[in-house]
Amino acid sequence: MDKEGKQSFKVIDTDEKWILYHNCFSLCSRKVRLCLEELEIEYKQEHIDLIETGKYEVASKNFLRINPGATVPVLLHEGYPIYESHEQIYYLTKESSSSFIIPSVENDKKTMDYWVKKSSMVGDPMENQDIYAGNCIGALTFPLFASMIKYINFNKIVFGLINHPLKIRVFLFIILKMFGYKAFSSSSPIRRLIKRSLKNINNHLLELNNHLKIKEEDWIINNSFTLADISWAVILHRIEEVGWDEILFRDKPFLEDYYKRVKAKKSFKNSIINYDHEILDKGKTILKSKIKEDQNLKSLFSESF
Ligand SMILES: N[C@@H](CCC(=O)N[C@@H](CS)C(=O)NCC(=O)O)C(=O)O
């Protein structure tokens, strides 16, 4: 399926102009919610559970009719789907009457496109991490997945093994459910994946820190909040949410200040912070304490990369 832009087929008959199928915890969903909030577009929300938030609703018959790829977010415009989150945010700006999150100067727009592309999650998240910072995020989230999956019944994961088209994702959760934080021991291949992602994201963040230092302005493109900021806001938030901020932000003062400005925005609170979830809250709390107590986590979160 060509996933570019709006598809030529409808997935439902609806009178709603905009429907977003999303998950409170999913990074790409958060990006699109933040964009909708910035653009002040009203939309209907359909929350779809991922295994992390309780069950594989994303692999249910009903949702596979909306997206056979079994991923969120999916944005519907009058029933027609747009599948990729980076496509969705560009589409929304084209359709919206307010154009303020796209720069008017062509050169600035090119710079914005560069940072949006860099932050995107494209294809297999274990590939091309040197190009796409978004692809580093899956592996960096493994410790939080391991904390959340404790609260999910095994039979809910097995449902994914049968119905989810992306079996590799389901296997990962089975390993995390079975081994817990032992999956991060020093000889584990999972730990190697995390360390590779840490190295790659660190390079992207160094570049962003340097860009912010040279520009000396509030946002990535001059002084206005654009799609580039929307895309990076959710990545920085995920880094902090898992507890990587201590090692990834500490030598990047311009990035740290920038993230403080992001967090102060009302749209960020409305579209990200206010979407809490019981399993996510429990997972974050337990992970915070385990990073100090569990030897595998302790060393993972303090080692250089
Ligand atoms: N490239 C896609 C990635 C979508 C994606 O992988 N979404 C994740 C949540 S962030 C998902 O739905 N995963 C399904 C699962 O893990 O079962 C995008 O940018 O929208």
Descriptive account of the structure:
- It is a single chain.
- By secondary structure, the chain is mainly alpha-helical.
- It contains 15 helices and 4 strands.
- It folds into 2 domains: 18-95, Glutaredoxin; 106-300.
- A hairpin with a 2-residue loop joins strand 3 and strand 4 (80-82).
- Helix 4 (106-119) runs parallel beside helix 10 and helix 9 (189-215) packs across helix 12.
- The radius of gyration is 19 Å and the shape is globular.
- The protein starts with 17 loop residues before the first strand and ends in a 5-residue tail after the last helix.
- Residues 26-28, 50, 58, 70-73, 84-86, 121-122, 169 line the site of glutathione.
In brief:
By secondary structure, the chain is mainly alpha-helical. 54% of the residues lie in helices and 5% in strands.
Give the secondary structure arrangement, pairings included.
Elements: E1 18-22, H1 27-38, E2 44-47, H2 61-66, E3 74-77, E4 80-82, H3 85-95, H4 106-119, H5 137-140, H6 142-148, H7 154-163, H8 167-179, H9 189-215, H10 227-242, H11 245-249, H12 253-263, H13 266-273, H14 278-293, H15 295-300
Parallel strand pairs: 1-2
Antiparallel strand pairs: 1-3, 3-4
Helix pairs in contact: 1-3, 1-10, 1-13, 4-10, 6-14, 7-8, 9-12
Residues 26-28, 50, 58, 70-73, 84-86, 121-122, 169 line the site of glutathione (GSH).
